[in-house]
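Minutes, project check-in
Item: structure for the 192-residue chain
Input as provided by the requester:
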Amino acid sequence: MLDEQLNVAYLSAQNNAKDLNQTLSIEHILVALIKDSGVSEALSDLKLDIDEFRKILLLEIEKQPCHEPPRETTQQVGDSKEVERVILRAILQVQNQGDKRMVNGLDLLISIMNEYNSRTVQALNSMGINRNDLIAYRKNDKTKRQDQSNVRSLDSASTKVKLRDSNTSYQAEEKRLKAMIYNPKEFRGWRN
C-alpha cells in the first residue's frame, strides 16, 4: 500500500521515536517526510521555509512525553491513534480516486492536513500551506507528468514516422540505383 520512499520515511520515523522513547506521532512522520523528494519539492514549490518548519517539528517532538524504554530491543514503537488514522485515510483517499498506485508521501501529507487540531497542521496553515494547495499541486503535478508522457509518446511516434520515411527513402534510392545499373540508357549524363 505504501510506496518505497514512504515506507523508508515511516521506518525512519519509527526509529526516531524509538530512540526518544516516544510514541510515533505525526511530527515524527513529518520530520521523515520532509526528507522525501516529492514532499520537499511540493513544500518548496509552495514557498514553505523547510528549515523553519523542521525546527517547529523538532520543538513539538521535544514537548512529547517519553515512555519507559522497551525491555526488548526488537519491540516495536506504538503508533498514536492519529498516525493510524492519517495512514488509513491516505490509503482510502488513493483507492477512492480509482488510482491503481501506491500511497506516496504527498498523499500522506494531504491526509495529515485533515488533522485540524494538530499544532503542526496549524503551524503549516500559519506558514501559508493548506490542504487545498497540496491537492492542487498534486493535480497539477499529475497533469504535468501526463503531458510529459504524451510528449514522449509523440516523440516516439514522430521517430517511428521518421524511421519509416527514411526507410522509404532508402528503398526509393535503392530502386533508383538498381535501375541505373541495369538500365543505363534511361539515365543520361551519368557517363561522359
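Outcome recorded: The helical segments are 4-19, 26-33, 37-45, 50-63, 81-96, 105-112, 119-126, 131-182.
No further action items on this chain.
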